Amino acid sequence: MKKYLLFLFLLFICLSQVFATHNRAGEITYKHLYGNTYKITLLTYTYLPSPADRPELEVFWGDGTSDTLPRVQKIDLTPVMRKNIYEGIHTYGGPGTFVISLTDPNRNGGVINILNSVNVPFYIETVLIINPFFTPNNSPTLTFPPIDDACLYKPFIHNPGAYDIDGDSLSYTLIPCKREDGLNIIGYTYPTANNIFTLNPITGDLLWDSPIQAGEYNVAILIEEWRNGYKIGSIIRDMQISVVQCNNDPPIIDPILDTCLEAGALLQFNVHATDVNMDKIILTATGGPIVMTNSPAQFPQNTYGYGSVTAPFIWQTECSHVRKQPYHVNFKATDDGNGTPVKLTDIETVNITIIGPAPKNLTANPQGNSIELSWNISECDNAVGYKIYRRNSYYGFFPDYCETGVPAYTGYSQIDKIQNINDTTYTDNNHGIGLVHGVDYCYMVVAFYPDDAESYASLEACTTLIKDIPIITNVSINHTDNSNGSAYIAWSKPTELDTIQIPGPYKYLINRSEGLQGTFYQLIDSLNNLNDTIFSDTLINTKNNIFNYRIDFYNDEPANRFFVGSTQIAQSIFINLTPGDNKLILSWSNNVPWTNDKFVVYRQNPITLQFDSIGWTSDTTYTDINLINGKEYCYKIKSIGNYSASGIINPIINFSQENCETPQDLEKPCAPILHVETNCLTVENTLIWSNPNNFCSDDVVKYDIYYSSVANGDFTIISTNNYPEDTTFVHSNLTSIAGCYTIVAIDSFMNQSNFSNIVCIDIDVCDLYSLPNVFTPNGDGTNDYYTPFPYSFVDHIDLEIFNRWGQIVFTSIDPDINWDGKNKNNGDDVSDGVYFYVCDVYEYRLEGIVKRTITGYVHVYRK
Question: Which of 102, 152, 397, 667 is the most buried (most CB within 10 A)?
Answer without folding.
Answer: 102
